[in-house]
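pls ignore typos typing on phone
flavin mononucleotide + seq
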Amino acid sequence: MLRFLTAGESHGPGLIAIIEGLPANLSINTNLINQELAQRQQGAGRGGRMKIELDQVKILSGVRFGLTLGSPVSLLIENKDWANWTTVMSSDPIPVEPTRLLEPRPGHADLPGVLKYGQRDCRNILERASARETAARVAVGGVAKQLLAQFGITVGSQVKSIGDITAVACLCNPDQISDVRLSPVHTLDEEAAKRMVEHIDQARAAGESLGGVFEVVVWGVPVGLGSHVHWDRRLDAQLSAVIMSIPAIKGVEVGDGFALAERLGSAAHDAIYYAPEQGFYRRTNYAGGIEGGISNGMPIRITAAMKPIPTLMTPLPSVQIETKEVVEAARERSDVCAVPAAAIVAEAMVSWVLAGAILEKFGGDNIQETLAAFARYHKEVSAGDPN
Ligand SMILES: Cc1cc2nc3c(=O)[nH]c(=O)nc-3n(C[C@H](O)[C@H](O)[C@H](O)COP(=O)(O)O)c2cc1C
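k done
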């Protein structure tokens, strides 16, 4: 079983992740992880924090000479901003406590968090609720992507809308990923990208924030990941859960998702064909590559909706948690829009689930065993034999 934990506060010394369950002998390239981290930091709409940080991973354990050992892999990303927060975020008691944050922000974890955890300072909640934590997930995803690459699986994403500006461009093959990543708003539609950047600039000037929609696409997924036999083994359920675990994500669709609900059945399902050289195949992919909780060999396609960033420079009304006075919600340094970054986090989380599904199906204590089982299965499935 593949599992990971993250730890770390937004303005603490750093973020850590521990991955357990990777097979031995998997090649790990630190630069590839750092590329993912750099991509998460980018995008129009990011706040001042991203100018301070230069996220780089340090591998603390589980990898020797570029190969996994089968032992837990631990990853560290230092927070450069920590230097400015050593007093406010001290783990030891300090003589004079810093100003507490008492004006919870609507849409953030501040108020439910202080009530649940019995806190008198919203900082004790927001430090962990902050999406800074997603840097650790992206590092984990960078490892998962390297496992998937061994099996010919590639994960990409693009932004489909920011606010009410919609992009029209198909992310149809993995060769387009590098172009998406050059865009300031992570989309192939250059004309829409210009309007999206303007929209973000206008929102910033108005003290507003924006959300949007992005898609994650996975190519090269073999038939047979996930299972129909139990609710928590369904691949679509696992993917939806990890996408929803990303802060500010409020909706997930698999394949054509909500649009399927208004179609006739004949226009909603992907007819099955067979050719000896190709095996079973489809000409459409309304299902987004998953039927009955099992990957069907078509690209996996997931779409997600991100709400606007909760921290507003023109804040909504709130209530001071001690005096109960009407106040403006707290302003923290903040992103105006983080949809491109969220897409990168989603790539990481999707990669994680698929890496786990690969290991569940093909097993192995070292990657050679996993690859051998995969090759045998691939041969049988390509020949059209039920495995
Ligand atoms: C990549 C990324 C960056 C984010 N940046 C900010 C930010 O700068 N300020 C903010 O208030 N919320 C930001 N958020 C959203 C909050 O973390 C999120 O809304 C909050 O934790 C509450 O969780 P919920 O929206 O899922 O209910 C960001 C989310 C992501 C995925």
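Residues 316 and 329 are 6 Å apart (CA to CA). DSSP finds ten helices and 17 strands in the chain. more later
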